Predict the 3D structure of the following.
Amino acid sequence: MEERTKPRLFDSDSELEALLAAFDEARIPRHLWTHREHLAVATLYVLQQRGLDAIRTGIQRLNEANGVPQTPTGGYHETITRAYAHLIADFLSEQREGTLAQRVGVLLASPLAHKNALLEYYSKELLMSVAARGEWSGPDLKPLTGGPVTQPS
């Protein structure tokens, strides 16, 4: 079994608020827009009930600012964004205590933060398909509802 290293957590709510402001203003450089930052921003958007359209628009705006072209195999991915938004909302419904940094930290330390977490719900073929990138594709392995994501092997 692959051993996961502990994720670098956010030190404070103000660090997260600065990340969110940079995201909202499309000021995060491409090399700093990592999986960790995607999850942190999505968590904040879910907590603030900003909605999927706002998450989608923000990612697309940031990609454009960083010169990331939208192609059939690159750029914004609708299914990954929607699936993570759903799973994060489900996760946060059970994590109601703590500061923003603490709640984001719990999520980042969970199996949900693993880059392959969605492969519990989707086959790689479906998730990486052109169709799934461009529009919502429901999971083909198990529903997104109920139960925690397990630790990937």
Remarks:
- The longest helix spans residues 78-93.
- Residues 13-134 form one domain.
- Confidence is low (pLDDT under 50) at residues 147-153.
- The chain has one domain: 13-134.
